[in-house]
Specification:
- The complex is a heterodimer of chains A (315) and B (273).
- Chain A is an all-alpha fold and 315 residues long.
- Chain A has a domain of 191 residues: MetI-like (MetI-like fold), CATH 1.10.3720.
- The longest helix of chain A is centred in the first third of the chain and has 37 residues.
- Chain A is globular, with a radius of gyration of 25 Å.
- Chain B starts with a helix and ends in a 6-residue tail after the last helix.
- In chain B, helix 11 crosses helix 15 and helix 14 packs across helix 15.
- The relative contact order of chain B is 0.14.
- Helices cover 76% and strands 0% of the residues of chain B.
- The chains are: A mainly alpha (315), B mainly alpha (273).
- Chains A and B meet through helix 1, helix 3, helix 4, helix 5 and helix 6 of A and helix 2, helix 5, helix 6, helix 7 and helix 8 of B.
């Protein structure tokens, strides 16, 4: 993501001729507005105005119909003493940690395999990418069946190790573990693609030089590949953090946040408060916290990026 | 000989990954081809008898309705996004004006945004506009949330187009709209393909807006319809697997025929050329 904001250099068309500057600048203003208008209108209507609205709603006690009652910061104060809110926040943190410490390394391993000198890897790589293509709802339903206590293949596998009839999705801990496993399954291929592109971009001469110096494959990986992949690892981590804050679909489909809020996330909790309990004001407060966290993460990343560039560091 | 032995661990890892990523699909397709009795007798084995009965029953239960809705919404939204984002990207990447950077950053920041922060107001908005519980309610949010990544991809690409082409068109008396249509847009095809693939797959699979904005079964898109099927198919697992297979089929087919393009498209702005 940090590469993304690197910047739009506005291409400067040759200096404008100075004749009739006023009319010209008015014309230019109209032209620019016309080009931007459709995008800006849709964006304001469905993105900017709703965020502002959500902030406003969060100061009300409101069931979604009629007028709400202004309660100031009460919703936020209630959040602080709401156990489910803290459970959700913890679970979101687990998703972030799993993404960074399991998904990204696995993605890197998969990318290295794609470039390994073995037969049939082209076919393999096609299949490695499958999980990322299909809808999260389909992924969720498929895995719920595979995790089924009686007929599921997963229990068939773990029974080899002496575990019988594990009810994966009926206990908080195993449910969380199971959903995290599915997340790893679904999103590792995405990081695989990012890493593959980055590895392909590493100049071949570096490896040739290392070879002449008699470096082992191991040394080459830790001295050349890994350091040069740092920018990709950083930007993948950013994508993982932001993506994990937004997580919703897979949890909603597989556990619905249950059992007993054991796998609740900010996203699922907000959804329940808004569209099951019709606590729209309270739900708005949760939603705004999600927005706020995403913004904080973005700002920190941008600031770090800025200072790093200022120092002139490569990574 | 020595080299061959060295490669054994590589093959082992590659195969483990293959089973991990591929087995669930094999299970899904194989189960969808089994009869219900066969599934109960041997849930793990490959299908031995072959039946299309499940696919038939899935269509009888209305899967085709979900298909049509999904195709309508994703196709219309994707083409609208391509046009709107291309228009907006032109001044953002090729013209100098005061608020350029601010407007650009405002759009790009949308990529970081949790959809939940807009959910309740968008829900209210759809009711106010009388669109609630129609597939048209999805168009607005789908287009709006596809704009950030699309504008990001297109502006990056447009910056690379040499200014000299534009100058030549200007001398020939083209105004900005002429330049956009005749010079820029035709050169934009590869980037537009990326935008198309990325957004189509994401919108085809989109779930949360559909969950909030649609309630009647006849207006549901595929992901929502599948979730709805879950209850009705709790005893008919081969049927559910047939529905999942059918829903995944369009994208898997596109992927098989143009793997490179889809991979590049899905990596979207994250991978630079």
């Amino acid at each position: 993501m940090e590469t993304q904001l690197k910047g739009v250099r506005t291409a400067t068309p040759a200096a404008q001729t100075k004749t009739r500057p006023k009319k010209k600048s008015l014309n230019k203003f109209i032209t620019i507005s016309l080009f931007l208008a459709p995008a800006i209108i849709v964006y304001i209507l469905y993105v900017l105005y709703p965020i502002f609205s959500t902030l406003l709603y969060s100061f009300y006690k409101w069931d979604g119909v009629g007028a709400g009652e202004f309660v100031g910061l009460q919703n936020y104060i209630n959040l602080l003493s709401d156990n489910v809110f803290w459970t959700s926040l913890t679970n979101n943190t687990w998703v972030i940690l799993t993404s960074i410490f399991v998904q990204i390394p696995l993605g890197l391993i998969m990318a290295l395999m794609l470039l390994a000198p073995i037969r049939g890897i082209r076919l393999f790589s096609g299949i490695y990418f499958f999980p990322f293509l299909i809808s999260t709802v389909a992924v969720g339903l498929l895995w719920v069946l595979m995790l089924d206590p009686l007929n599921g293949i997963i229990n068939q596998i773990v029974s080899v190790f002496g575990f019988e009839n594990v009810e994966w999705l009926s206990q908080s801990r195993t449910a969380m573990f199971a959903v995290l496993l599915v997340i790893v399954w679904q999103f590792s291929p995405f990081y695989m693609i990012l890493f593959k592109a980055a590895i392909v971009g590493i100049p071949e001469e570096l490896y040739e030089a290392a070879e002449i110096d008699g470096a082992s494959a191991f040394t080459k990986f830790f001295r050349i590949t890994l350091p040069l992949l740092m920018p990709t690892i950083v930007s993948s981590s950013i994508l993982a953090i932001v993506g994990s804050l937004k997580a919703f679909d897979i949890f909603y489909v597989m556990t619905g946040g249950g059992p007993n809020h054991g796998t609740e996330l900010l996203g699922t909790y907000m959804f329940k408060q808004a569209f099951v309990n019709f606590n729209m004001g309270y739900a708005s407060a949760i939603a705004f916290v999600m927005f706020f966290l995403a913004m904080i993460v973005t700002i920190i990343i941008q600031a770090l990026d800025y200072y790093r560039k200022k120092k002139g560091a490569y990574v | 000989m020595n080299v061959a032995i060295k490669k054994v661990p590589l093959y082992v890892i590659a195969l483990i990954l293959l089973v991990f990523t591929g087995y669930p699909f094999l299970y899904m397709i194989s189960t969808s081809l089994k009869s219900r009795t066969e599934f109960f007798e041997k849930p793990y084995s490959l299908f031995s008898s072959f039946t299309l009965e499940n696919f038939k029953s899935v269509f009888e239960m209305g899967l085709s309705r979900y298909f049509i809705n999904s195709i309508l919404v994703s196709v219309i939204a994707v083409f609208a996004v391509m046009l709107i984002a291309a228009l907006a990207s032109y001044p953002l990447s090729r013209m100098k004006f005061k608020l350029n950077r601010v407007v650009f950053l405002l759009f790009i920041a949308g990529m970081m945004l949790p959809i939940h922060a807009t959910l309740i107001p968008v829900f209210k908005l759809s009711q106010t506009m009388g669109l609630y519980d129609t597939i048209w309610a999805l168009l607005g949010p789908y287009i709006a949330f596809s704009l950030p990544i699309s504008i990001f991809i297109l502006t990056q690409f447009m910056q690379e187009i040499p200014a000299s082409l534009e100058e030549a068109a200007k001398i020939d008396g083209c105004n900005h709209f002429g330049i956009f249509w005749r010079v820029i847009l035709p050169m934009l095809t590869p980037a537009l393909m990326t935008v198309l693939i990325y957004n189509f797959i994401h919108l085809w699979n989109e779930f949360i807006f559909a969950l909030v904005l649609i309630s009647s079964p006849e207006n549901m898109t595929l992901p929502l319809g599948l979730q709805d099927f879950k209850g009705e198919f709790s005893v008919n697992i081969p049927g559910l697997m047939a529905a999942l297979t059918l829903a995944s089929l369009p994208i898997l087919v596109v992927y098989i025929f143009s793997q490179e393009k889809v991979v590049k498209g899905l990596a979207g702005g994250a991978v630079k050329e």
